[in-house]
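F.,

This is the one I mentioned.
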């Protein structure tokens, strides 16, 4: 128990990887910072555990270190450990039956989010300055939102993914967490190999009202904080409202192959975005099966509840509709590029509700899983960059919002998040004071 209290159960293994010796370490961009890595990254001499002891038992130590980890070390940062993750990166919730569930520092009775659970907790608990996760379906964005920190999913294929166990190559990305946007930006510039650039003013901020109607808290608590921050920095004219579901339905005709009668009838739902997530998950399952089906069938690993069912679904997937999935993905990427143009920003809820209580029943989780993927698939299917931004708390639970920019606009998005920091904090304080005032009035 003492070990869990000291490190919040975030680490599966402590280690020490120091940056190379240099004459001028103070000139390195990440000098003096510490980080942790999800146990999906190769580190020379250590077995990459992939969240499952049967995987660790049947695989040898890595013969080299993942390039993304080396880049951070070469930039002056020190790695202090590998973190707990969901088994085979195939869950959003962070509960691992073999290695335990990392404790969410924001809400200890709630799940931390997955699959990069330990990496998010290590940052939120101030055990490290930043950390590496991976984001295929949402494995950085969700734990960032649940743990009240920043999480960045870069544009697909912009950060080398070699030395990382693949889950689904069409969507796999190296992602990272930080408690503040300055470090988030510094880490991003190292991983993305970006030169310093002057901040660019966003052309507009799109608020898709239909997406924010999916929130389980009053949507104004999120949208008004964001809108007022943008208006203060960039002017009243910058904000636009739209219906993203209708836009996607009109611009991505191939999604009709994934529209179902059930989607149309489900309450609190956006049918076209549900179809989007169906296409993404079909392609994801097929690629996961190609990557790991043979190992699963031969080893028959011990898998936790929820994980086991998802993996069995993947193993039963066929490739007959893959061409249709890829066609829909190309149409969607073009449509979203047209919508955002060069420097437009799309805001969406990171997740439709607060983190669930520990050991929430599977039926409840799956209900929200479908709704969540309507939102989470937007960046995944398009390959666009997305950042989850903490917006304080509501009812003592963390609140988050996400901003998306076009593929390749990562530096622009990182600079924007840093520029927004002060204004967002002001608006969060205002929103919190208004909420407290209304609660006092009700009590009286």
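My design for it:
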């Amino acid at each position: 128990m003492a070990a869990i209290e000291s490190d919040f159960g975030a680490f599966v293994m402590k280690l020490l990887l120091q940056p190379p010796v240099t004459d001028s370490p103070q000139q390195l961009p990440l000098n003096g910072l510490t980080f942790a890595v999800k146990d999906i990254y190769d580190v020379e001499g250590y077995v990459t555990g992939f969240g499952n002891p049967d995987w660790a038992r049947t695989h040898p130590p890595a013969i080299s270190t993942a390039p993304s980890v080396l880049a951070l070390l070469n930039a002056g940062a020190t790695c202090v450990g590998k973190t707990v993750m969901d088994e085979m990166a195939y869950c959003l919730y962070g509960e691992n039956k073999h290695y335990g569930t990392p404790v969410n520092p924001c809400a200890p009775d709630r799940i931390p989010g997955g699959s990069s659970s330990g990496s998010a907790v290590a940052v939120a608990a101030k055990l490290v300055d930043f950390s590496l996760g991976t984001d295929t379906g949402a494995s950085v964005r969700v734990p960032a939102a649940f743990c009240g920190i920043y999480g960045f999913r870069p544009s697909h294929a912009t950060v080398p993914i070699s030395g990382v166990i693949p889950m689904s190559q069409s969507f796999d990305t190296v992602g990272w967490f930080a408690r503040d946007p300055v470090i988030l930006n510094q880490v991003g510039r190292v991983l993305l190999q970006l030169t310093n650039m002057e901040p660019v003013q966003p052309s507009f901020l799109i608020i898709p009202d239909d997406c924010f109607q999916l929130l389980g808290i009053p949507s104004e608590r999120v949208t008004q904080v964001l809108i007022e921050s943008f208006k203060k920095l960039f002017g009243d004219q910058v904000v636009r409202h739209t219906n993203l579901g209708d836009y996607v339905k009109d611009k991505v005709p191939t999604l009709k192959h994934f529209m179902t009668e059930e989607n149309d009838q489900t309450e609190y739902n956006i049918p076209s975005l549900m179809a989007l997530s169906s296409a993404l998950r079909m392609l994801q399952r097929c690629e996961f099966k190609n990557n790991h089906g043979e190992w699963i069938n031969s080893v028959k690993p011990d898998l936790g509840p929820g994980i086991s069912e998802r993996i069995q679904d993947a193993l039963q997937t066929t490739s007959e509709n893959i061409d249709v999935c890829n066609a829909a993905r190309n149409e969607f990427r073009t449509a979203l590029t047209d919508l955002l143009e060069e420097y437009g920003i799309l805001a969406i809820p990171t997740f439709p509700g607060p983190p669930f209580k520990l050991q929430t029943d599977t039926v409840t989780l799956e209900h929200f899983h479908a709704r969540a993927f309507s939102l989470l698939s937007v960046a995944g299917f398009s390959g666009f960059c997305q950042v989850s931004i903490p917006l304080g708390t509501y009812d003592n639970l963390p609140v988050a919002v996400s901003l998306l920019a076009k593929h390749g606009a990562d530096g622009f998005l990182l600079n924007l998040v840093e520029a927004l920091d002060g204004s967002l904090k002001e608006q969060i304080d205002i929103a919190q004071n208004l909420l407290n005032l209304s609660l006092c009035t009700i009590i009286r």
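Confidence is low (pLDDT under 50) at residues 439-444.

Talk soon.
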